[in-house]
Amino acid sequence: MSAELPLPNPESVSSGEPLLVPAGKTRTFGRTLARQVAQYLVIALLAAGSYFLVTHFFLLSVRVVGISMFPTLHDSDSYLLNRWVFHVRAPRHADVVVLRDPMDNGFSVKRVVAVGGDTVCVKQGRVYVNGRELQEPYLQSGIHTYAASGLTEQSFQCAEDQYFVLGDNRNFSIDSRAYGPVPRQNIMGLLIR
Questions:
Q1: Based on CB atoms within 10 Å of each CB, which residue in 22, 24, 38, 83 is the most buried?
Q2: Are 134 and 121 spatial neighbours (Cβ–Cβ below 8 Å)?
C-alpha cells in the first residue's frame, strides 16, 4: 500500500518555513524544465540556421556606398540582393548586379551591358555591343561613356561566362573599362529595387 503526502496550501506556509515536496514531483519538474530548455535550444538553432540559409543563398540586405550607379541607385540607400536568381538563370543585359570587384576584391554594384559571346567597343563617348550602339535609357541625359584614361577607343570580347559591367554614373565609375569582363563566379546576385 502506498500513501501520498498532500501538498501544503502555499498560503498556509510562512515564508520562513521550508516547503516539503514529495520526491516524485521534483523529478517531474526537472524533466519539464529540461524539456523546455531543449525546445528553446532547438528553436534558437533553427532560427540561426534559417537566417544563415536565407542570407547566404536567397536574400541579403545591402547598402550602396558611393555614386557610381547614380541616378539609378543613391549613396547610403538599402536594397535587397537576390542571391538565388542566378542559380536559375544567367545574368542578362541591363541587370543591376553586386559583384566582387577584380581590382580590390571589395563589393561593387554595376549594370550588365554585355554577356558571354558579345563584343564591346567604347569610342567617341558611346558604347557599342556587337556593332550596334547600346541604348541606355537609365543614364542621365548628357552622360557619355569614354574609354579608360589615356585611350580613345577600347574593344573587349566576352568569353563564355564573362560579363561586361558599367556603372550608370560613367564619369565616377571604375568598371569593366578598367578591369575587363568579369567572370560569372564574381557576380553575387541581382539587386532588387
A1: 83
A2: no
Pairing of strands 107-114, 162-166: antiparallel
List, by residue number, the catalytic residues: 68, 110
Domain 64-192: state its class: mainly beta
pLDDT tens digits for 51-62? 777 766 678 889
Handedness of CA 169, 170, 172, 175 (dihedral sign): positive
The pTM of this model reads 0.74
* pLDDT attached to residue 11: 54
Q: Which residue has the cell 540556421?
A: 49
C-beta separation of 152 from 176 below 8 A:
no
**Do 68 and 108 form a contact (C-beta atoms < 8 A)?**
yes
Q: Is the dihedral of CA 109, 114, 116, 120 positive or negative?
A: negative
Q: Which residues contact 60 (CB under 8 A, 6 or more apart)?
A: 80, 81, 83, 189
Q: Structural domain boundaries of the chain?
A: 21-58, 64-192
Convert the pLDDT of each residue in 100-118 to its tens digit: 999 999 999 999 999 999 9
Question: How distant, in Å, are the alpha carbons of 103, 104, 153, 160, 178 from that of 150?
Answer: 19, 21, 9, 29, 11
CA 107 to chain centre: 11
Confidence at 149, pLDDT banded by 50, 70, 90: confident
